[in-house]
Amino acid sequence: MIAETVCSAVAVAGLGIAAVTAYRKRFLAAARIAAYALVPLGLVMTGAVGWVVDTAFSPTAWAGFLVLGGAWALFATTRTVERRRGGTRKERRAAARAARTDAVAPAASAPSLGQASSPASRPAAAPRATGGADDFSDIEAILKKHGI
């Protein structure tokens, strides 16, 4: 009863402000204010305000919200644990199977950097030194190829 009265009073006050705004020749703003003012009145007329008030003061409704919050917390917790483990059991098994498979072409050779027309015309490659310098020799060859 009190909530309906307050909403109706807010609607009347809003319509009064809209009338003053229209009197000042600001019709677009007045129409917008009137639209906002009619929302609480419409909620009262549809009975939504009564439903909200009955829900707000109902212990059963609050228990229901508590159960919904608990369900959400369980869902969020299980998702977090699942992500830390790396997915569900089925996803982990599929990833393990994929990791066990061999490469498509394990014996494939490294791509050549030169533009030789046939294997016989390529110069013989010098044996590479093992160690840290081997890691950067490919990079150096690419940079030299592009003139950097």
Quick recap of the structure?
The protein is mostly helical. The chain is built from 6 helices and no strands. It is elongated.
Rg value? 37 Å
Between the first and last Cα atoms, what is the distance in angstroms?
82 Å
- Residue share in helices? 55-70%
Low-confidence stretches: none
Main β-sheet, in a few words?
none
* SSE run: HHHHHH
Which shape, going by the Cα principal axes? elongated
- How many individual helices? 6
State which percent range the strand residues make up: under 5%
List the helices and strands and how they pair.
Blueprint: H1 2-23, H2 27-46, H3 48-56, H4 59-85, H5 89-100, H6 133-145
Quickly list its features.
148 residues; mainly alpha; elongated
Characterize the structure shown.
The chain has 148 residues and is mostly helical. 70% of the residues lie in helices and 0% in strands. The chain has 6 helices and no strands. It is elongated, with a radius of gyration of 37 Å. The termini are far apart. The model has no long low-confidence stretch (mean pLDDT 81).
